[in-house]
Design brief:
Elements: E1 2-6, H1 10-21, E2 25-29, H2 32-41, E3 43-47, E4 52-54, E5 58-60, E6 71-74, H3 81-88, E7 97-100, H4 107-111, E8 121-133, E9 136-150, H5 157-168, E10 172-175, H6 179-190, H7 192-199, H8 203-208, H9 210-229, H10 238-246, H11 256-262, H12 273-283, H13 288-308
Parallel strand pairs: 1-2, 1-6, 2-5, 3-9, 6-7, 9-10
Antiparallel strand pairs: 3-4, 8-9
Length: 309
């Protein structure tokens, strides 16, 4: 399969690397020192599940690489998605599949402003990974998993082909029965990232402090209540299951949003706790913990964005 990975960071670098290792024709869209290192030394992936290097690796800064792809996996930050959608819209064919793996619940909505919905596959992923240094991806924890389905949850020939492609690459994958429910399950969990940022803790520290643990559970309750108001089919047990899942995370682990806030970089706060607050206002659901997290990070977010403009 001809695959273009838009955004060769921790997510795109890992999954794209595994797909390339399996013999797929993978092109990475990257930039700066990261791109230079990939072109010079290949894409290096470190992982407790096995390390590998893709050399030579096909990489470019040119978005035109999307033009010949059967599958485009978008792994940029959520706030970059609209710009990417506008750039790739004129380049894709009728049968090109667009699979977004962004955090949040707005990816499909934002892509569909510029790209026909028929091209879009619903998707999300689970992985702890980051760029360790230019050209090197470090997979830090949990079994990397891709969850996907048609937006209407139909089982189709093309999603069957996606499953075959992922399985041939040895990637854990789930062909979802209800992709919107799966997206919200992950969304509920990742909204913890903002709480890590404001408390300056990792998952081990946050979950072991009784006061912070109670705050985290309340944050999840708010996301669940907003989801139900929005018509999402989430099980009542999802908050308890998510708390148990967080208890299994490597104690020192954090998240990309958390690290971005600490480093003074633009973050996905608008697409995580900010989205909870706005949807809570829309549906009349109180979200005091998410509002506290969002409001606390917002001044830092505005400062980070003004520094990059």
């Amino acid at each position: 399969m001809r695959i273009t990975i838009v955004g060769a960071g921790g997510v795109g670098g890992y999954f794209g690397g595994r797909l390339a290792l399996a013999g797929n024709d993978v092109t990475f869209i990257a930039r700066g020192n990261h791109l230079e290192a990939i072109l010079k030394d290949g894409l290096i992936v470190k992982s407790f599940m096995g390390e590998f290097t893709i050399k030579p690796a096909k990489a470019t800064a040119n978005i035109d690489a999307v033009k010949n792809a059967d599958l485009v996996i978008i792994c940029t930050k959520a706030w970059q998605l609209k710009e990417i959608a506008q750039q790739i819209a004129p380049l894709i064919g009728i049968e090109t599949m667009i699979l977004p793996l962004q955090n949040g619940v707005l990816a499909t909505e934002e892509l569909a402003e510029f790209i026909p919905k028929e091209n879009i596959i619903g998707g999300l992923c689970r992985i702890f990974s980051k760029i360790e240094s230019p050209g090197t991806i470090n997979h830090l924890g949990i079994d990397p998993t891709i969850i996907f389905a048609e937006l209407n949850n139909d089982q189709t020939e093309r999603t069957s082909w996606l499953k075959y492609t992922f399985e041939s690459a040895g990637l854990t994958n789930i062909w979802a029965e209800d992709i919107q429910s799966e997206i919200w399950k992950k969304f509920l969990m990742i909204c913890s990232s903002g709480l890590l940022a404001v408390t300056k803790t990792n998952y081990g520290e946050l979950r072991s402090n009784p006061e912070n643990r109670a705050m985290l559970e309340k944050l999840f309750d708010e996301v669940y209540n907003v989801a139900i108001a929005a018509g999402i089919n989430l099980p009542e047990s999802i908050v308890a299951k998510t708390m148990k899942a967080i208890d299994t995370f490597p104690p020192e682990s954090t998240s990309s949003l958390t690290r971005d806030v600490w480093d003074g970089k633009p973050s996905e706060i608008e697409y995580q706790n900010g989205t909870v607050v706005r949807l809570g206002e829309k549906y009349g659901i109180p979200t005091p913990v998410n509002k506290f997290v969002y409001s606390t990070i917002l001044p830092m977010e505005l400062k980070a964005r003004s520094a990059t403009n």
